[in-house]
Amino acid sequence: MSKEFDFEEALAALRNGQDLTGKDGILTPLIKQLTEAALKAELEAHLEQEEPPNRKNGSSKKTVKSSTGSFELETPRDRRGTFEPKLVKKHQTHLTDEIERKVLSLFALGNSYQDIAGHIADLYGLSLSNATISAVTDKLLPELEQWRNRPLQSHYPFVWLDAIHYKVKEEGRYVQKAVYTVLGLTLEGKKEILGLYLSETEGANFWLSVITDLQNRGVEDILIAAVDGLKGFPEAINSVFPKTEVQLCIIHQIRNSMKYVASKHQKAFMADLKPVYRAANKGAAETALDELEARWGQQYPIVLKSWRSKWENLSVYFKYPADIRRVIYTTNAIEAVHRQFRKLTKTKGAFPNESSLLKLLYVGIQNASKKWTMPIQNWNLTLSQLAIYFDGRLDGVLEI
């Protein structure tokens, strides 16, 4: 028979510094007593409604985990076995979902399973295995799938696309996989992650599947797409959205160029390169590019060839005023999302499967999205300029 909760004894324990909750918490016996009393009341109500008459038949025991600690719960039974308790169901081992919420909260902060188990043990005096924690975090997967298939807006003025790489175990070995994040700017000027795509390789076929997915989920038009020089992407996006302008990220182009410039020349080369991407207009930029090639073309032909071959997509931003230029000439907006990803994954050398990676990145997206409550700076001015530059493309979708 359960021992009655002694308030005087509990008060004395509290004065002596004993914790209210967690392992050996003062409140655990009280929670046990209240829960068992409620179950007995449920059984009595059930017996009163039974025809023909039914009666009590002892109790069964099971260990229940609660936010105040674990305890052995005595669940009353009836002779006919028709009693189905509602407060703590037959196979239920957690009194509330508070512990699961805490596990997910710790997971969303990037804690390892070992750290999560340690925190839960300190807070509640419960021992959770890696398998249990994994089962809890796996509850994010249906939510992730629903999020990945949700309908999107019909028009996005800007879309950025960039990749981040992770090692994922596949068929007994770890392989490098790229996670591509698609970030959009809505007509209200707010950021929104449109999709998360995982692939071992990139190319026109993969990009076509990404763009087709966006179209199938409701996207009808994208004004400008900013990408990091991904091979095959301009062709893929224009095959689905032929009017979309593709701006290659200037910052990525500069970084890639400097890899091929000798360290002793980098300072001078950058000084000559700045007039190209900081020019007031496309004509001035092309003049600066000619001068750059005249000085450095013989020493670094690969670098200059890259700028020439990509110039059509690198120079898109010159046709727009400063407010639009700031938004599109770099993929910094999406790199900020990837910094959030890195905070969560910095303790993970590799992932045992794709699901373990994606569910962690998903909570990273939720964390980042909480900050996107306001439109970007000068958005109304930018939108009015876009309506002029892309005449007719935003008709019927702007609220004026």
TrEMBL record:
Q: From the Swiss-Prot or TrEMBL record, give the protein name.
A: Mutator family transposase
Region listing for Disordered, in residue ranges: 47-77
Output the superkingdom of the source species.
Answer: Bacteria
Q: What is the originating organism of this protein?
A: Thiohalomonas denitrificans
Show the taxonomic lineage: Bacteria, Pseudomonadati, Pseudomonadota, Gammaproteobacteria, Thiohalomonadales
- Keywords, in A-Z order: DNA recombination, DNA-binding, Transposable element, Transposition
Functionally, this protein is described as follows:
Required for the transposition of the insertion element.
One GO molecular-function annotation for this sequence?
DNA binding
Family according to the record: Belongs to the transposase mutator family.
Any one biological process term the GO annotation gives? DNA transposition
Tell me which InterPro entries the record gives. Transposase_mutator
